[in-house]
Every structure is written in structure tokens, then in C-alpha cells.
Amino acid sequence: MGMNLKKAVAAGAAAALGMTLAACGGGDSDGPGGKSEATASKGGTLYYLQAFPFEAADPQRIYYGVQLANWRRVLYRGLVAFPMSEDPEVANTPVADLATDTGTASEGGKVWKFTLKDGVKWEDGSDVTCEDVQYGTSRVFANDVIIGGPNYTLSYIDVEDYPGPYKATAEQQAAFEDAVSCEGKTVTFRFNKPWADFPQAAAGMMMVDPYKEASDEGDKGKWNVLSNGPYKVEGGVWDKDKGATLVRNDQYDVKTDKPEELRLALPDVIEWQINNSDTAGELFNDRLIKNSGNDQYAITNARVSPPQFPKITGEVEKRYLNVLSPYNSYLVPNAKRITDVKVKKALAVSLNLNGYVKALGGERTAAPAETIVNPGVSGSQDNPAFAEDNNNDGDPAAAKALLAEAGVKTPYPIKLSYPKTPTADKAMAIIKEGWDAAGFKVTLDGLQDTYYDVAATPNKDSDVLWAGWGADWPSMSTVLPPLFDSRPNFSDATCGNDYGCYQSDAFEALVDESANASTVEDQVAKLQDADKVLGEEFAYMPLEITKFNWLFGSKVTGFTTTAASSAYPELGLIGVETK
Amino acid sequence: MWAYAARRCVIGVVLLLTLTLVTFMLFFAAPVNQARLACGKICNEQQIAVTEKALGYDKPFYAQWGSFVRGVVEGRKYPLDPELRAAAPEIVTDCTAPCLGYSQFNAKTVNELLTEAAPVTISLAVLAVVIWLFFGVLLGIMSAITKGSIIDRGIVGLTLIAFAFPTFFIAVFFLKYVVVKWGLLAYPAYTPIAEGGVGAWFGNLFLPSFTLALVFLASYVRITRAFVLESLSEDYIRTARAKGLKGRTVLFKHGLRAALTPLVTMTGLDFAGLLGGAIITERVFAYPGLGSLTVDASNAWDLPTIIGVVLVAGAFVILMNIIVDIAYAFIDPRVRLG
Questions:
Q1: How is chain A split among helix, strand and coil, in percent rounded to 5?
Q2: Do A144 and B79 touch (CB under 8 A)?
Q3: Cis peptide before A384 (omega within 30 of 0)
Q4: Among residues A55, A250, B257, B308, which one has the fewest Cβ atoms lying within 10 Å of its Cβ?
């Protein structure tokens, strides 16, 4: 499959030089699927069909994985970016984008320096400057204006009581500009603790992306787009409910970029059409199955739904990809109600994951997971607690033995809480069946809109809770600490993202060691150990890795997904046959 | 009559204020932390508190309601924090009276949102009303005057079928088959007259309006039929016939006029209900009208927009009630307002 991508890149790069070559865009499909056999060339109009609105167009407020990945290719370049490679190792290693290199760390990872390239411009013709990076970084601190979006930098940048650029006093602003300083084209970030995977964070999120102060309108500018990438939004404003037309940005200089690694920018125009109807996703895929008119030049980020799978045969199958997504789901025992590790282990060993996956829609929709850490995350490996002698059918006899060993009264009552949907009801019924057979007495507790608030409360009466997670960037530091470190999660009113209200000194010590690691390798090793601790204490039970199913039009070229695109269509490689 | 209208208007304003107060109460009674949702998945308590204050949700609901009412009268400026407004005037949004609030979720004033969404819903509702009234009354009359015939039974049977299907089903059926599978019509997308002209506006509006009209049409056929049959059996109709008036004159001048009164009431109220947002039709066709706005605002716990839509929907219903009452006096001289 790697060859397919290389061919696609080669073809696209050649096309960018005015040539036309045959290309194949495979994708890291691990199931049924096809590859684009169409001819890649520069030009034409790509239709991008989307079935939900984005939350914002402001780089510091963007948090959807698909938007971060796609817009990095077309509108917002970062200091660094993830390359378009099917090899996850390569795709998870940032390369220079706006900066001349991937950053220089010093003081054990507490200080990072990046120097901006010459000649990079905003769409209005002004230079992208160090001060723009500094200003963009400062905006994240204004929680009262830039509401929402990833804010990891708040706990790292070495400044206190900084309210953001809008209402900072001169002293507060000076303190921030010491922490994030500019010297010519070089920006220096000073952190209060090591941040070994900062380049990954800067590539995956847009927290430290440049923002031009003169164009800042605060919340009013939530949908404004000032591009520094190969395209710009026609009219400069993204329509939340309709999308926009992306046209070539004449201020973009390809010489400042690495098109073969980061963005081929093949289509001349991208018609990004949003339809947030509840049925839009299914209809988009119906249209792609039919493949007529402009839909031949269309892609979508709406997944094919299980009822549509039978239609994916013959010619349609050649325009279909089935890939692992960056999202995992898992169960957490409530540590306040289930304290005996043998009871937790009994739950884990009697978990019928194969049945659960089947209820979700089968092997095209999910794959059983052996760890909470998605395989697209650097350092992901099966957790021994869940991978050992396990055929994923569940073993009620072993669970019964464990309950007997624990000396608890059976049937052991379990209240299993989850966000209610018809599919979830079916899948949870499978889990209940396995657990009931193992000596538990399960009550299913499907909750509607209030689920996440109930799940976070410390005094809930749920025994086991469902949860799902995707890494913010492909590092275990955005999976294990946010989910199981009690310190940032716990308060009187909430257990935060740690729905099981789990606390472990051993785990937190390893998190601290990983946080103080000066290299990514050290950080990964410590977090792998931390995952083992979680497994030994059965702080979670992995359920599944969600799979994505994509269709694309017959005249789309280079269609694939990568770890860098978060398993969504890799927009940097996609083109269309010119009419 | 003017005194009557003025009295009804005053009662309407009181009703609307009560509606907004109840909506505030319901919103804050929900077991959801709106600020946590807005802040995002990795916010700590301190950041959530800042967000809560920025959204104005840190105050008791009655204080927020008081600010809302004051904003309607005086206008408001956003962000709410005066210190922030003074420090960064470039980010200030001036919401002039009657200010219905500012939606952080949409980054627009509620007045702007309603101004954008209302024409979509009004277009949809007006065309739907025209379709269902024209065909509903026509088929109802045909059915009444051919009572017991195959035509009558056919019309009644077909309308029963249309009535049995929910709007959601009809809308999805049209999109899936008429648009996608058979390709008979283009995928409808709302196009304002100013952008695409009357042709594009009508062409794109037809399928959603027809969907919306179908369910109403079925009930209007049946009701028109019943009212016409009832009025045709009245003594004065027999008298009119005995006087030698033509059948058409008896039907349209005497029979239909009596049947119109209840139809006007129904149309007014149904139309008013639709103006508040044809939620299902707008959602399935992704029409950015008041119905879609309501659903999006509810999903995002966007209080200012929810209040705005409730207010507009309530105002439409109250206004249409007043219009219907006044229209009675013109249609049926026996009715006097006083």
C-alpha cells in the first residue's frame, strides 16, 4: 500500500509541474476497499460534501480532527505539519512547514525555538511574521473571547495570570512576551515544564498558529478566514451552514512549501458544501454510489452507514475504503463502587468484544481493541492485561472463578451507563448477556443528552460507564493523562474526563516522569508503563477501534487516508480528472 | 375594532414576556453545564468559570432575564464584560434595540440570525400554504359535490394515505428517490430571490414546500369536504336553489362562504405554527430557516438563540390569532368585535 501512496504523490508532484501521470491512491485499508485508478492532474473542481457544521473557522478555536487535518492542507499552515504518508511512523513525525526546521529544544525540552521561512504571506499579501505566531499563541489565553478550542498551551507557557491579549495590562503582556518571545523571525516558547512532543502538538492542533492582530475581531471573527495556504475562502468568510468555495491563493508561494510531503493542492477549486440534515450523510453516500454528474468529482467526510454496505459491490467497491479511525471506545469501572480488582478483571474477561463489534455493524464498522491507545498513536502497543489468552468472545467461566476468588455475593449487581442510541442499546445488550452469564446482574442505563454530565459527577450510582476518545495529536500524552490522571480532572463537583474517578499514585508517578521526559522516546516509554499499570488495575476495559468507511467519485484521483489526516480523506493528495 | 386589536396586542406582549421567562427557567433547570459544553473537553474548573461568566450564565436566571428584557428596550453591547469592551473596542458587537441577545455559538446577534432565517421559513410556509389551500379546497369541493362517487372515494382514499405518512418519511422519500435515485429534480438548496431570481427560488423551494403541504393538504381536503357538505345541507341553500339560482352560484356564493370561516381559522393557526419553524422539513432538506435554527440552538444549549426563536414563534401565533379574529368580521358579518 505504501507504494500506492508514493505513486500518488509522485503523480501529483509531476502534475503540479504541468504533466499528467497515472496514479493510484490506495490508502491504509485493512479491509475491503479499492483505489483510485483515475489520472491525477492539476486543475478542475473537487466537491467536498460534509454532513455537519464546523465549530469555528478561527484557527485557535478549531478542535475537530477532520477540520484540523484538512485545513492544514489548504488554508492554515503551521510552524510544523504532519506529512502525507501511509506509514504511521512517518506520518506522526512532524516536518517543517512555516518554520525552517522542526524546532530546536533546549533546557530539557522547556524551551523551543522555531525560525520562520522567508516569503510566506497571508492572502492579503502581508508577511507571516514571528509576531503573528506570538499573537496567535496569546489568543488561547482569552477564555472569555476565544471560547472553545484546544488550550493545552495554558498549562505549559511560563506565564501566570495572563488574561489574553484583549485586556492584558502592559505588565501582563510583557510577561507573556517574555514567555513567547520574538527575535527577528525566530519565535521562542518558554514552558514551565518540559514539553517533549510540542512539535507534534503544534502540527496537530492550531494553538500556536499565526494570527494577524490587525484582522482580529475577537468572537465576531469566528468565521473569518485569512489564509496562508494554497487556497483561500472566496469572500473571506466561512458559512457555518453552507460551507464555502476555496479558490487558489495567489499569495501562496509553492517554493516556501514542500508540496510532495505536505500538500499537492491539485484542484483549482474546492466546493466545500455543508448540509447538516440528519439524513445528509446517507444521501451523500447514495449519491456517490450512483456516481453521476458532479458527484463523480466528489468526496465526503460522511461515513458510509452499515445499511449501505450491501450496495458496495462491483464498480462501487473500487471507490471504497475501509480504514481504522483514530477513535477508541472503552468501559471504565467506577472506582468508588467497585474496589476489588478481581471483580474488575471478571468484568474484563467476560466481555464479549466480538459480539459487541457485530452489534455495532460488524467488522466494517469496528475492530476489537486490546488497549485504549489507538494504533495510530506513537508507541501504541497491546496492553498485556487485555491481550493475553483472549479470543474476545468473553469467558464467563473464568469470570465466575474470579468472582468466587473475590468472595463476593453473586449475582453481583452492575449498573452499566452509556449514551443511548438504538445501536448502543443493541451493543450493550450483548455485553449484558456475557456479564449476566458470568455471575453479574446487569442493569442497562442508557442516558440521553445528560450522559456526559452524569458520567463526570463523582457521586453517580453507575458501576461501569462507556466512554470514547481520540488523541488530540498522535501522542499517548493526549490519551492517558487526560483520562486517568486525577489531578487535573478531580474537583468537588466533577471527576472530569476520568469517568471512573480512578486515582493511582503509581500511575501518576509515571505520568509525571513522562511529563518531565526531554525526548519523545522517553515520554513514550514511560506512558507505555503507565498503560500497563492501568491494565493491572483494570482501570479501563478496551472495547473497539472505530472504523471509517469512505466512498469517492470515479473521477477523483489520489484518494487515500493517512494517520496525518486522522483517517479522514487526505485532502493534500486528492485531485480530480480535468473535464 | 381598534380598541379590540390594541387590547389583544397588550395581552400578546405580556404573553411573550411570560414565554421568555419560562424558557429561561426551563433552560437552567436542565442538568447540563452549558459553560462546560462551550469551553471544550479539556477545560479545567477555572477555565469553565471564565467561560460561564463570559456567556453571562454565572448570574441567577431572573437576573439574566432582567438583562434580556432591558436589552430588548435599550440594546446591549457584547462581550458582556465592560472592562474587556473598553480594552478592545475592535471586538465589540453593538446590538441595538430591540436586542434579542448575542449567540456566541453562531458569533452573531440573535436579531441577525432571525433576519437570515425568517425569509427561508416564510418562503417555505407561504408556498406550502398556497399549495395546500389551492389543492386542498379544490379537491375538497370536488369531493363534496361528487359525494359517494368514485372520484369522491378516490380523493378521500388518497388523502388518507398522504395523511398517514409522517413528514419525515415523505421528505426522505423524495430526496432518496425523486432526487438521488431517479434524478428527476436537482438537490434543493435554498436560494434567495436576490441571488438566483424567482425561478431558482421557486425551483429549489418546490420540493420542501410540497412535502410540507402534503400532510396539511390531506386534512384540508377532508375538512373542506365536511364543511361544504354541511353548509350545502342548510335550509338557506335549499331556499337559494328553490329561488332558481344556478348551482355554481349556490355553491360558491352561499355554500363555500359559510365553509370558509373555520378554514380561515385553521389556515391562520397552521400558518402561524409553520412560521415558528417547519422543523422536520427544514432539517431533512437542510434549509437554514427558523426550524433548523431552533434545533441547532437546542443541541448547542445556545440560550440567546433559543429565546429569540421562542419569541418569534410566539409572536407569529399571537399575531395570526389577532388577524384571524379580525378577518372573521369581514368574512362573516354576524361576528362583531367589541
A1: 35, 20, 45
A2: yes
A3: no
A4: A250
pLDDT of the residue at A579: 65
Q: How do beta strands A298-300 and A45-50 pair?
A: parallel
Contact flag B286-A218 (C-beta cutoff 8 Å): no
CATH architecture of the domain formed by A77-234:
3-Layer(aba) Sandwich (3.40)
Q: Which residue of A has its CA nearest to B53?
A: A144
B164-196, pLDDT tens digit by residue? Answer: 888 899 999 999 999 999 999 988 989 999 888
How far apart, in whole angstroms, are the C-alpha atoms of residue B226 and residue B222? 6
**Interface contact A218-B55, CB threshold 8 A:** no
Superfamily covering domain B117-331: MetI-like (1.10.3720.10)
Q: Is B224 helix (H, G, I), strand (E, B) or coil?
A: helix
Q: Sort out which chain A residues have CB atoms less than 8 A from B286's CB and list them.
A: 241, 275-277, 280
Q: Closest partner residue to B54 among A56, A144, A222, by Cβ?
A: A144
The beta-carbon neighbor of B44 closest among A63, A287, A488 is A488
Give ∠ CA A81-A84-A90 in degrees, rounded to 5: 80
Fold for domain A326-545? Answer: Dipeptide-binding Protein; domain 3 (3.10.105)
Q: Which of A68, A147, A292, A305 should one mutate to test binding to chain B, selecting the residue with the greatest count of B CBs within 10 A? A: A147
Q: Output b/e per residue, A34-49; b: 16+ Cβ within 10 A.
A: bbbebbbbbebbbbbb
Mean pLDDT for chain A overall? 92
DSSP state of A61: G
Which distant-in-sequence residues (6+ apart) come within 8 Å of B4 by Cβ?
Answer: B325, B326, B337, B338
Rounded to 5°, angle at Cα A281 from A275 and A287: 95
- β-strand partners of B93: B78
Place of cell 463537583: A493
How far is residue A539's CA from residue A331's CA, in Å, rounded to a whole number?
A: 9
User: Which residues from chain A sit within 8 angstroms of residue B95, using beta carbons?
Assistant: none
Considering only CB atoms, which chain B residues are within 8 Å of A455?
Answer: none
Is residue A27 over pLDDT 60? no
H helix intervals, A18-144: 65-74, 88-91, 130-139
Residue of B nearest to A149 (CA): B40
* Extents of the domains making up chain A: 77-234, 326-545
Yes or no, beta carbons of B84 and A144 under 8 Å apart = yes
Q: Which residue has the cell 480523506?
A: A569
CA-based nearest residue in chain B for residue A222: B107
Q: What is the pLDDT of residue B334?
A: 65
Is A241 touching B (CB cutoff 8 A)?
A: yes
Looking at residue A11, its pLDDT comes to: 44
Residues whose CB is less than 8 angstroms from the CB of residue A193 and which lie 6 or more positions away in sequence, other chains included:
A110, A156, A515, A516
For A33-148, where are the E strands, in sequence order?
39-40, 45-50, 80-81, 95-96, 104-106, 111-115
Give the span between the Cα atoms of A24 and A34, in whole angstroms. 10
Taking only the tens place, the pLDDT of each residue in B6-58 is 887 888 889 888 988 998 888 888 777 788 888 877 788 888 888 888 888 88
> What's the gap in Å between the CA of B38 and the closest CA on chain A?
6
Q: Domain ranges for chain B, please list them.
A: 2-111, 117-331
Q: How far is A573 from chain B (nearest CA, A)?
A: 28
Tell me how far apart the alpha carbons of residues A331 and B21 are, in angstroms, rounded to a whole number.
41
Contact with chain B for residue A424, Cβ under 8 A? no
Residues from chain B that touch A167, judged by Cβ atoms under 8 A, are 81, 83-84, 87-88
* Nearest CB to B47; choose among A143, A222, A292: A143
